[in-house]
Amino acid sequence: MPYLSPISPGLSWYEDTAGPRPEYPALDGDRQADVVIIGGGFTGLSAATHLAKAGTNVVLIEAHRFGDGASGRNGGQLGTGQRAWAEELEGEYGFTRAKALFDLAEDAKAHLLEFSAANGIDIDYMPGQMSVAHKPRYVDDYKAHAEIMASRFNYPHITFMDAKETAERLGSTHYYGGTRDTGTGHIHPLKLVIGTARVAAAAGAHIFENTQSTGITSQGGKVRVTTPNGTITAQKCLIAVNAYGGKLEPISASHIMPIGSFIGATVPLGTDSKVIPGGESVDDSRFVVRYFRKSRDGRLLFGGREIYGVNDPKDIHIHIRKQIAEIYPALKDVEITHGWGGYVGITVPRKPFVREVMPNVISVGGYSGHGVMLSNFFGKLYAETIAGNRDRLKLIEELKTPPFPGGRRFRTPLLFLALNWFALRDRI
């Protein structure tokens, strides 16, 4: 029987193609550590790896299996920069800070590729990403963005595409223009999760699956994390659960909201397919963004149906096929072999959330759909912080990231109403 995540819906194509997925033991008994990490996705596993390589005694616990959340089930696109365009950040924070945030993200991109290569992790990297406009009035913004990235942010890899070039590169006339970025690409995310866990264990990190945190306390310079079968006592703690925190820690929960995002994988389209002939990944200008790409074996991996809240959707295949057909009418009857989802952590301004939520306890998440690249690097930045250098993590800590309005009781329905309003605007 194929493995199904207990916390994320559907059968993942990544699960079927990732190769061997080692199982790690559950925690059994009390532990002492320098650092305890809660969460076995990209952030937590990266932090555990870099801490262990630096000689830190680190214990990581994951409530289910590594990669069962969004880290192992996402769209696989790296992107460039932060979630917001660099010029938008410049308008809010000024050029110097915006450039520093952009450079940090470029460091994150380089780190992910270098880490994978250095540790022999085949992540199915494929180069190129296109961002496309679903309304004519957005086209000028994309053209200006390409010029700004080259002239102000020293990033010459983004070029503008008019409607004709966009149609040729997409194999679809659905969009009106956009940009092509040759300085980034897309990956098989679960292969990265599996590989990072392997490297962390080999470096001496004590990593445990199927071990749920039942509480966190910080008193007298000690952090205690309880589980059903033991308590971990440490000097420091990293909360890296992102959208899957539930009621574990209230400050993180008030700032990070789960959004369900869902993906379908088609049968291989064949070598004669006109769909994305260059192999780039694609994202569009909708607020409820559609994102798609082709796999190494020529399948179309298409994501875009978002659900606000945490109720699992039904009929993933039907809704994904309908969205595919809007862009590629010839694929209206294409066979979808896999349909799956995961919950992405978003914040109000769609900027990452990094906060010391209690003494010696830092929470990291809220990547807002830009986490493949950033989350791995933030794990490294947390390890830098433990080593005494908090400068780069501070760039993110100091971002303006307010809590969601409405408190615990009303924030989900308020967000549902707000984001469905934006989804309606996407269509008109």
From TrEMBL:
List each copy of the FAD dependent oxidoreductase domain by range: 34-384
Q: Which GO terms describe its cellular component?
A: cytoplasm
Q: Which residues form a coiled coil?
A: none
Signal peptide start and end residues = none
Instruction: Tell me which InterPro entries the record gives.
Output: FAD-dep_OxRdtase, FAD/NAD-bd_sf
Enzymatic class = oxidoreductase
* Keyword annotations from UniProtKB, A to Z: Oxidoreductase
Matches recorded under Pfam families: DAO
Identify the EC number(s).
1.4.3.-
Q: Which GO terms describe its molecular function?
A: oxidoreductase activity
Please identify the protein, giving its name as recorded. Answer: Gamma-glutamylputrescine oxidase
Q: Which classification does the entry list for the species?
A: Bacteria, Pseudomonadati, Pseudomonadota, Alphaproteobacteria, Hyphomicrobiales
